[in-house]
Specification:
2 strands, two-stranded antiparallel sheet, Alpha-Beta Plaits
């Protein structure tokens, strides 16, 4: 039953997110669920071929790369995620913010922010 399976997976992922919230070095965790739009395939999609899509995406943010690395090797490793309902073949990566700006960084000559 897909609905019951999704509900179990959602509960397991929510529990995981609650556990992650207790770790110093993290700033957030977000569970995203894909919903295919009710539109026709675009020309670009036809040219590229069949695009892959993820049913669920778990995004974990933090300020301590060591903590994120440790989690990627433990709670968030592919086998652990399969254990709570993820499909085999999960893709993961560690990304860093390469640019940020504050309002003071983008003031024009009059002092107005854009």
């Amino acid at each position: 039953m897909p609905g019951a399976r999704d509900a179990r997976r959602r509960r397991a992922l929510q529990s995981l997110i609650e556990q992650l919230a207790a770790h110093a070095g993290l700033t957030g965790a977000h569970l995203l669920k894909h919903e295919r739009p009710a539109i026709a395939t675009t020309t670009e999609q036809r040219i590229r071929g069949h695009d892959q899509e993820a049913d669920w995406v778990l995004v974990v943010n933090g300020y301590d790369a060591g903590v994120l690395d440790a989690m990627a090797a433990a709670e968030l490793d592919p086998q652990s995620l399969v254990g709570i309902g993820a499909m085999p073949g999960a893709v993961s990566g560690l990304y860093t913010l390469s640019h940020s700006a504050t309002p003071a960084d983008i003031q024009d000559d009059r002092g107005d922010t854009r």
